[in-house]
Write a structure and sequence with these properties.
Elements lengths: L1 H17 L10 E5 L5 E6 L1 E2 L2 E2 L5 E7 L4 E3 L3 H8 L1 E6 L4 E5 L2 E11 L2 E8 L2 E13 L5 E11 L5 E7 L1
Parallel strand pairs: 1-11
Antiparallel strand pairs: 1-2, 2-5, 3-4, 5-6, 7-8, 8-9, 9-10, 10-11, 11-12, 12-13
Length: about 160
């Protein structure tokens, strides 16, 4: 009887993990909003070990409390969360998000790891995440975006705010 219960439990838990999604733990950065817990990940996109020049970043939604991945819609890519490439080669790329052309993100290796570097208020920092504070109304709008990162020179954690 004891072995039957253990077998049933193991079968039950293995069924639960069949549909589980493995979400990478290392991202170039992620984009969060105040509206819900869903977020967008931006990961390095390599091709044969080199930076994909046409699409240096892969972006996707993480939803369901971190259990599901889904693609961005065409509208989301074109209007808000998509990435536009300014320049690119096998080692480095300069990009911006479609919603905010003024924040240039340089994708490159820093100390052997792929990172996104932004320059804000005279400081270069390794981008970790962006957080958009949204104002809910008939038409939601962004009040501000906080940019979180690590100062390249000092190693200090930084937060810079971009007002809308």
């Amino acid at each position: 009887m004891k072995h039957t219960i253990i077998s049933l439990l193991l079968s039950f838990f293995s069924c639960l993990t069949l549909g589980a999604v493995v979400i990478p733990q290392e991202h170039i950065y992620r984009f969060e909003r105040s509206t819900n817990a869903n977020y967008i990940c931006y990961d390095i996109n390599l091709q044969d070990g080199k930076l994909n020049q046409k699409a240096p970043l892969k972006s996707y939604w993480v939803t369901g409390g971190g259990t599901r991945i889904s693609e961005l819609t065409l509208v989301e890519r074109k209007v808000a969360f998509g990435i536009k490439v300014i320049s690119s080669d096998e080692e480095e790329a300069s990009v911006y998000m479609t919603a905010y052309k003024d924040l240039i993100i340089r994708i490159c290796k820093h100390k052997g790891k792929w990172v996104g570097i932004v320059k804000l208020n005279g400081h270069e920092m390794i981008l970790q995440k962006m957080f958009a504070q949204m104002k809910q109304s008939v038409y939601p709008r962004c009040e501000y975006v906080d940019i979180y990162g690590t100062d390249i020179k000092t190693g200090e954690e930084r937060r810079e705010r971009i007002m809308n």
